[in-house]
Amino acid sequence: MVLGAALLGLVFLMAQKIWAQYGPPPQPSIWAVPGAVISTGSAVTIFCRAPPGVIRVCLIHYVLDGNWFDCTPQGAQEVFEFSLKNMTHRNAGFYYCDYFNGSEWLQNNDILELVVKKIHIKHFWSLLKISLAWTIGAQREAQGCGGALNVVTHQGRPA
């Protein structure tokens, strides 16, 4: 009885497939720099890591009324780069990469969700005042005027 149970356990263990991965964990096939959450008007670079043998990559932006895509020139490389400028809310959404290996198109299941946030108006005005103060201060210094420059808000307090 014990021998039968042990034998059954051994058969069960032999029938199981044990999947192990050696080395570092897999790297993502798609990612964004500076990140997946960006501000309106900023730029982002999306990278697609290609499987071996791929010679062309297309970045696909899934939108309800169709897909937008941008394809790289042909040539074998490991990582393909797509630079997107002046991002707006229309650029937000889901991106993925399609790969061409010379004979067929392959698709990876990895998806990047890109979020484009509006700049909060309070922060915008603060940045504008600081930029204006720096510009005026630099101009005054260049003209030899010197002295401190205070930026005053509409409430009469220094910014």
Short summary:
This protein is α+β, with helices and mostly antiparallel strands and 159 residues long.
Question: What would you say this structure looks like, in words?
Answer:
- A hairpin with a 4-residue loop joins strand 7 and strand 8 (105-107).
- Strands 2, 4, 5, 7, 8 and 9 form a six-stranded mixed β-sheet that branches. A three-stranded antiparallel β-sheet has the order 1-3-6, with no helix packed on it.
- It has helices spanning 2-15, 121-142; strands at 30-33, 37-39, 44-49, 56-63, 66-71, 79-84, 93-100, 105-107, 112-117.
- The protein has two helices and nine strands.
- The protein starts with a helix and ends in a 17-residue tail after the last helix.
- By secondary structure, the chain is of the alpha+beta class.
- It has two domains: 26-117, Immunoglobulin-like, CATH 2.60.40.10; 120-159, no CATH class.
- The longest helix is centred in the C-terminal third of the chain and has 22 residues, at 121-142.
Provide the domain count.
2
What is the correct CATH architecture of the largest domain? Sandwich
Radius of gyration: 28 Å
CATH superfamily of the largest domain: Immunoglobulins
User: Which word captures the global form?
Assistant: elongated
The CATH class of the largest domain, by name, is Mainly Beta
Work out the strand percent: 25-35%
Helix proportion of residues, in percent? 10-25%
Cα(first) to Cα(last) distance is 85 Å
Fill in the CATH topology of the largest domain.
Answer: Immunoglobulin-like
Oligomer: single chain
Task: Give the SSE order as H and E letters.
Answer: HEEEEEEEEEH
Number of helices: 2
Which structural category do the helix and sheet elements fall into? Answer: alpha+beta
Give average pLDDT, whole number: 73
Question: What does the main sheet amount to?
Answer: 6 strands, mixed
* Number of distinct beta strands: 9
